[in-house]
Design brief:
Alpha-Beta Plaits; CrtA-like; 244 residues; Spheroidene monooxygenase; monooxygenase; monooxygenase activity; eight-stranded antiparallel barrel; alpha+beta; oxidoreductase
Length: 244
């Protein structure tokens, strides 16, 4: 797959009372999302706090869609699509993050949805996406390894937002984190001892049956940033929700 010009992350906050409707949407909309005109690849996702990857970490009032588009013009039609309208009806707040792929390694559902981006110099905020399908027999050791990394991530310099994502309550897990600039992300990913230890263990433990790691330039943020769990230190964001 060629490198897409635009990837979007839509995140919706719902009320607890809307949970049955949200679960209905999660059952019906994955196929509808993939059938939306201009969509190359799309996933509907539940979310969590990012402190663990079991059912206890789930956030039943926040849901997301990660979508790879043929063009920005196609993405502009999402709000008027059946999926976009359905989620808007049950959401009390929402945010859209526009992304440009920088690097991507691995596969998601046996595909490389972001192509093979060549990276290049970037200034300003970046988003990191990790996604994995756990091997059932290795899941327990993986979950035991998560808390120290999650605790370190919480206080990492330059972190603007973070949360867990998943296609299912167990075994199909991932994280989204937003960083003030690429240097902050690199510092945590490769220099923090807890995260480095987890990276070192990954090939020997054999946790994942499938994995993907990708980084994106954050091109724009439109809507309610608090849906992402945004920190207060966002001086480089203008009042409309875009990047200043």
């Amino acid at each position: 797959m060629t490198v897409p010009e635009l990837v979007t992350l839509h995140v919706w906050r719902t009320t607890p009372a809307a949970l049955p409707r949200a679960l209905t949407r999660m059952a019906l909309d994955p196929r509808r999302l993939r059938a939306t005109p201009g969509v190359r690849f799309g996933k509907l996702l539940g979310t969590g706090t990012g402190t663990g990857f079991g059912p206890g970490d789930a956030d039943p009032t926040r849901w997301a869609a990660l979508t790879v588009w043929d063009s920005p013009a196609a993405a502009d039609g999402f709000d008027g699509s059946p999926v976009g309208r359905a989620w808007a009806r049950i959401a009390r707040s929402a945010v859209r993050v526009d992304l440009r792929p920088l690097t991507s390694r691995g596969e998601w559902s046996r595909r490389r949805p972001f192509g093979e981006p060549s990276g290049g110099p970037v200034t300003g905020p970046v988003l990191a996406l990790t996604r994995a399908r756990l091997r059932a027999r290795r899941a327990a050791t993986f979950w035991r390894a998560v808390p120290p990394v999650a605790a370190a991530l919480r206080d990492a310099p330059g972190l603007l937002a973070r949360f867990g994502v998943g296609e299912a309550p167990l075994g199909w897990q991932g994280t989204v984190s937003v960083w003030r600039d690429p240097a902050d992300l690199v510092a945590f990913a490769y220099r923090h001892p807890e995260h480095r230890a987890a990276i070192t263990r990954t090939p020997t433990e054999g946790w994942y049956a499938e994995e993907l790691f990708a980084r994106f330039q954050v091109r724009d943020v439109v809507g309610d940033r608090t849906v992402l769990g945004w920190h207060d230190n966002h001086d480089n964001v203008d009042d409309r929700g875009g990047w200043a």
